[in-house]
Specification:
The chain is an alpha/beta fold and 259 residues long. Helix content is 33%, strand content 19%. It contains eight helices and nine strands. Strand 4 (89-96) and strand 5 (99-106) form a beta hairpin. Helix 4 packs parallel to helix 5. It is globular and about 45 Å long. The N and C termini lie far apart (55 Å). The model has no long low-confidence stretch (mean pLDDT 94). The structure holds zinc ion. Zinc ion is lined by residues 10, 12-13, 15, 30, 32-33, 35. Zinc ion (ZN) binds next to loops.
């Protein structure tokens, strides 16, 4: 049957799904095959935090073009218009099940969620805010790796965010890292992997170097290589959580860790 204006196709099983139900009721998870589709930072925020509790911080920060990289400014402007964000990350203070938290949520629609200097700076400030206000921290990662258009300025965000995570942890504060599809590169190699509890959505692709890069230096990779399921099996994740259950898991963890 041809798709109508009101239906969408599952990217994995090709099922035709009623668009409104797919977005509002199923939160972009296919009811036929359970594939978790991409979701915007604003949609995730609505799914995870208490209504009306979010106070956005640093939302005026945006990337410059320090290397004068071809087409970079145009891509930044295009994706800002598409996502309603000025950068690849939403960050602030919110409540989850009544618990105040510092929270940061990536948006894959903003240059693939790649981590540039603004993502690094916003993550760092979010963690510092959590430390100053003695709040638990939740970071929902989605990242296509570090942003090549910003070169070393992007790469240095790994050390900066990781060092800030350590200070938050040394203050005895709790960090839940939520990994979503895809989480790659420098994010995986820094703040995304430093949660005290690390959970992921089903089927999320998570890794450092991408599978094509690794396949070029090794003959054969396991079928489910760099998936949440593979990482859970190898001890790199604590749990895989269906999107519809993520908020209640966060609330349980926050209650468990509350002083
Ligand atoms: Zn499907």
């Amino acid at each position: 049957m041809a798709a109508t204006m009101e239906s969408v196709s599952c990217r994995k099983c090709d099922a035709q799904l009623a668009k409104q139900e797919f977005i509002e009721k199923n939160h972009r998870v296919c009811p036929e095959c359970n594939h978790h589709h991409f979701m915007s930072a604003f949609e995730r925020l609505e799914l995870l935090v208490d209504d009306g509790s979010f106070e956005s911080h640093d939302d005026g920060l945006y990337s410059l073009d320090p290397l004068e990289f071809p087409d970079y400014v145009e891509k930044l402007e295009r994706d800002a218009a598409k996502t309603g964000l000025k950068s690849e990350l939403l960050a602030g203070i919110a409540k989850v099940g009544g618990h105040p938290v510092a929270i940061a949520i990536g948006d894959v629609g903003f240059i693939g969620g790649t981590c540039g200097s603004v993502m690094g700076e916003k993550v760092t400030r979010c963690i510092e805010r959590a430390t100053e206000q003695e709040l638990p921290l939740i970071i929902v990662s989605v990242s296509g790796g570090m942003r090549m258009q910003e070169g070393t300025l992007a790469l240095m965000q790994m050390a900066k965010t990781a060092a800030t995570c350590v200070k938050h942890s040394e203050a005895g504060l709790f960090f839940i890292s939520v990994l979503t599809d895809p989480t790659f590169g420098g994010a995986t190699a820094s703040f995304s992997s430093l949660g005290h509890v690390i959970v992921a959505e089903p089927g999320a692709r998570i890794g450092f170097a991408g599978p094509l890069a690794i396949a070029s230096i090794r003959e054969k990779l396991p079928d489910n290589f760099q998936t949440a399921e593979f990482l859970l099996e190898h001890g790199l994740l604590d749990r895989i959580v269906h999107r519809s259950e993520m908020r209640s898991l966060l609330i349980n963890l926050l209650e468990f860790s509350a002083p």
